[in-house]
Amino acid sequence: LAVGPVVSPPHSVDGFVKEFLRELNFGTGVLLSRATVNDQYVALARTVAHYLAARWLEGGRTRREAGVKVVGYLSAEYLLGRQLGNALLATGLRDIVEEGLESCGINLSTLRAQEVEPGLGNGGLGRLAACFIDSLATLNVPCIGYGIRYEYGIFRQTFVDGRQVEQPDAWLSLGSPWEFPHPEAAVQVDFGGTTEEYVDEDGTPRRRWLPSWNVLGVPYNYMVPGYHNGRVNTLRLWSAQATKAFDLQIFNSGDYAEAVRAQTFAENISKVLYPEDSTPQGRELRLQQQYFFVACSLRDFIERELPADFDLHDLPERIIFQLNDTHPVIAVPELMRLLVDERKMDWDEAWAVTQKCFAYTCHTLLPEALEVWPTEMLAKLLPRHLEIIYQINDGFLREVREAFPGDEMRARRMSIVTDYPERAVRMAYLATVAGAKVNGVAELHSQLLRDKVLPDFSEYWPEKFTNVTNGVTPRRFIRLANWNFTRLINETIGTGWVTDLDRLAELEPYAEDPEFRARFRQVKAANKERLAKLLVARDGIVLPEGHLLDVMVKRLHEYKRQSMKLLHILSTYEQIISGAIDPATVTPRTFVFGAKAAPGYKMAKETIFAINAVAATLAADERTNHLLTVAFPANYNVTLAEKLIPAADLSEQISLAGKEASGTGNMKFALNGALTIGTDDGANVEIRELVGDDNFILFGMSEPEVADLQARGYNPAAVYESNPLLKRAIDLLASGHFTEGNRDAMNPLVMDLLYNDRFLALADFQSYIEAQAKVDELYADPDAWSRKAILNVARTGFFSSDRSMREYLDRIWHAKAL
Ligand code: 26Q
């Protein structure tokens, strides 16, 4: 039997319709005349997947045969967003599909709306991983993304009486047509037990792990298509299942119920994404998740992607594992264990290999966000890994003591294992010691990482530290999300920008062209109209026409300062109703919030309640509701972002300087023609440098000023007392005006602002409202505003994740396109 290359279905309307109907009949098992929208959607997704699969299978084969270096992206989160639109874009099938479906009496947009997005991430970090794998596929670079197939992704947010209530995200309930499960390729993962010394066949004393329980990791493959280049990479997400051995043992003991419970226990590991994105709790299940996916992934790569006789001394020539924050760092001792315990490699040789196989990206500056695992928990769950970590630490500290004789304080500061407040492993230190490179995600963040978070390490290994400023994929966030703008850009400078975003610079001269500016405003107006339609249908929210659209979308966190945004709204409102300003002089604005709070984050939830209360009161206030509207659609996610960002006039990036590692929403807004009001923080700094001071509305303290104020002692109550505008805004919030006279309801938030205000919202308030006054003034001149907005687009091509990926490839991964 001659087996040729895998062939994709024909790229024609006829070819598509045949394939689609075949899939509907034989894949889904229904007649077209009886198919539900979901049946049609699933059949369409599977059909489009067929077009991609041919390239995927061929590409995988050529890659393995070529023996090139692969990027192994290790991330506990991938916030992918909907797949159908992206797959149609990548394959160039959109028009064919639209026409083909129409001939079957089916509307493509209806099917697209049917897709539930896989929300397997919390926010920025997970979305960044999704952008990166998109860019690597588009750059034709072989990459395997490794992660967890959570059965429940980030919770679905609802509001009940203005308060956040979480609902489970049952994203798999209607089936998941984009995944390819491979139960036959399951990998065993061990946990628990003890370690012991033994003497091997050569008479060498060694240590080994005697685990006490295990689970299976079942791989689910997802295709990651490049844009119009035929490359399709793999995202491999692991799902936990009970092992047969495990089952049998208990079933044989006769305790049926206990056996079923044990099965559930195993499957719990990939059950749910932890919804905390900044203040991780040291939960044992979370550690199980981390080790689970990392152990599966390393084994998968070494045993299934490399030839059977591969010499693991050469591993660094074939893989670089990028650690997306510390979540996968347990991979470091796991690789050591595979090399030393299982493959009997000499410790020093194994360590040399390991140090070339990993690189670490840090995504935070908040001390409470740095992961630390108690040794007690590690000893119980991964006893051999704990020993290996101790041994790594011993070797490392020996080196430090040699380099700095007598400086015992330094050795203690740098120790991977700390004793306070309890004996624990500092995962960021382990990642830094093991990684070939350590990077931050924006210039300022990388600088602060060197100076404040890991100063001893950057002094010891200056060349290890580097910066790669984040980026976003222009395919999803411009080409797909903003078709109105895409058409205008294409007509003006051609289509090359989609894979070469620096070419947006060619738009710069058009900023001076009144006709182009008018068309740009038409694009914004059309996008606002599209958003208005969506919000009415989705949330029953009515967006007024002709308002400045002011948008703040991101996770709810005190350092991001949604409460400061609220104070600005309150202050404007208060000044109108008290008669301090003439309503005729107010720029009509709609404020849109989108934000999920971690379910256990008290103050974040109070802030959500306050925003909703203000939104409701303002909506009912006839004196102001034609001028000020607050909209807070629940459950902000990638799908909503794709509609919101293109409609925005103003992007709120107002974190306290020195706290937001980078931000990536800031980039998406600028690229879609919004102006930024922002602090000198994260990637805002680079946005401002690129677009120019005139085209960015800067306010607030700089990071050194923040450090200085905190050192002097900060007293928010004194700021409140000394600023009458601020005082009136806070007093109004505390007065019960927004809570039907109930003053207690706002108490937690008000008290925190007055007597704690950890992130200096009151200190930056005055500067913020002055900057907002400048926004009003600017917006009053539509031509001046659109000129600046267009310059933002023309000057921010740098923020393509294609550029980020090129920097990782050249400076960190030393890997190449195929
Ligand atoms: C860790 C341990 C246990 C439970 C949860 C976690 C956890 C999960 C998610 C800790 C952190 C996160 C997410 C962090 C994150 O999204 N950081 C953001 O990363 C973006 C991409 O680099 C940056 O742009 C943002 O500035 C940064 O906040």
Concise overview:
It contains 32 helices and 25 strands. The chain is α/β, with parallel strands linked by helices and 818 residues long.
3D architecture notes:
GO terms for molecular function: glycogen phosphorylase activity; pyridoxal phosphate binding. Allosteric enzyme that catalyzes the rate-limiting step in glycogen catabolism, the phosphorolytic cleavage of glycogen to produce glucose-1-phosphate, and plays a central role in maintaining cellular and organismal glucose homeostasis. Its EC number is 2.4.1.1. The protein has three domains: 1-66 and 85-115, no CATH class; 67-82 and 117-469 and 806-813, Rossmann fold, CATH 3.40.50.2000; 488-799, Rossmann fold (3-Layer(aba) Sandwich), CATH 3.40.50. The chain contains 32 helices and 25 strands. Strands 1, 4, 7, 8, 11, 12, 13, 14, 18 and 19 form a ten-stranded mixed beta sheet that branches. The longest helix has 30 residues, at 37-66. The structure holds ligand 26Q.
At the third CATH level, what is the topology name of the largest domain? Answer: Rossmann fold
Q: What portion of residues belong to β-strands?
A: 5-15%
Kindly report the average pLDDT value: 96
What is the distance, rounded to the nearest whole angstrom, between the alpha carbons of the first and last residues?
30 Å
Shape assignment: globular
Radius of gyration: 27 Å
SSE-based structural type: alpha/beta
Classified by CATH, the class of the largest domain is Alpha Beta
Question: What's the CATH superfamily of the largest domain, by name?
Answer: Glycogen Phosphorylase B
Number of domains: 3
